[in-house]
Amino acid sequence: MCILWRVRYPIAFVLLAGTAAGACRSAALAPPTAARAPIVQPGAPGQPSQVIAPAQASDLSKVQYTGGDIKFMQGMIGHHAQAVEMVALVPGRTASDEVRKLAMRIDVSQKDEMEMMREWLQARGQPIPDPRAHHMMGATLMPGMLTAEEMARLAAATGAEFDRLFLEGMIKHHSGAITMVHELFATDGAGQTPEIFSYASDVDADQRMEIDRMGSMLKELQK
């Protein structure tokens, strides 16, 4: 409620009354303050998003890379390297244009991502792994990677048999990359910087789409 106080001088009263009345009208006409929109933090693949406070959002911008992030980037370089080895076998062994096109897309994308990961590690002063390390005796294979025996069997095949082994092997390989993404997000504090979160999320989405496509190609081949 607006109250107009009387003053001793008429002119002052008129001015004060006019000002106060204007304030009352402005208060009456002013729209209610809009509620602040919530800040939503996207969840990891398969996990729900959550509403966070402004202070938390500010803190997220300051999160630095972790040991889990480094391990993921280093491991994914070796993982991609085997996919590049697999597609290098395609030209001399398949008769399928569809398999050739698929292999070309995988080759380009994996090489581009490997370069990006090397630059990320180098910018942070972290070791860049030898992409051929998985060939070393006793090396632990990352999820989804083909064994030496499976790679030898793939290299020895031709025609429809090669296509089948290639598609089965690449589906296994892509599934392993998805597992690595899940392991990253399951590691405390890892996968939180915008660069890592965006890249890992893209890996998860892209590999799933290619798995679906290769599954359809495999079904056609088996008819």
Task: Describe this entry's structure for a reader.
The chain has 223 residues and is an all-alpha fold. The chain has a domain at 66-127 and 134-221: Ferritin, core subunit, four-helix bundle (Ferritin, Up-down Bundle), CATH 1.20.1260.10. The chain contains 7 helices and 2 strands, in the order H-E-E-H-H-H-H-H-H. Strands 1-2 form a two-stranded antiparallel sheet. A hairpin with an 8-residue loop joins strand 1 (39-41) and strand 2. The radius of gyration is 30 Å and the shape is globular. Mean pLDDT is 81; it is low at 1-34 and 58-62.
In short:
With 223 residues, the protein is an all-alpha fold.
Annotation keywords:
disordered N terminus; mainly alpha; two-stranded antiparallel sheet; Ferritin; 3% strand; single chain; 223 residues; globular
Task: Trace the largest sheet across and list its strands.
Answer: 1-2
Coarse morphology: globular
- What letter string, H or E per element, gives the SSE order? HEEHHHHHH
Judging by the overall fold, what is the CATH architecture of one domain? Answer: Up-down Bundle
Supply the CATH class of one domain: Mainly Alpha
Extended strand count: 2
What's the assembly state of these chains?
Answer: single chain
- Using only CA atoms, what is the Rg? 30 Å
Return the structural class.
mainly alpha
Number of helices: 7
- List low-pLDDT spans: 1-34, 58-62
Instruction: Write out the CATH superfamily name of one domain.
Output: Ferritin, core subunit, four-helix bundle
What share of residues are in beta strands?
A: under 5%
Please tell me the overall pLDDT. Answer: 81
Percent of residues in helical segments?
55-70%
From the 3D structure, determine the CATH topology of one domain.
Ferritin
Through-space gap between termini: 82 Å
Q: What does the largest sheet look like?
A: 2 strands, antiparallel
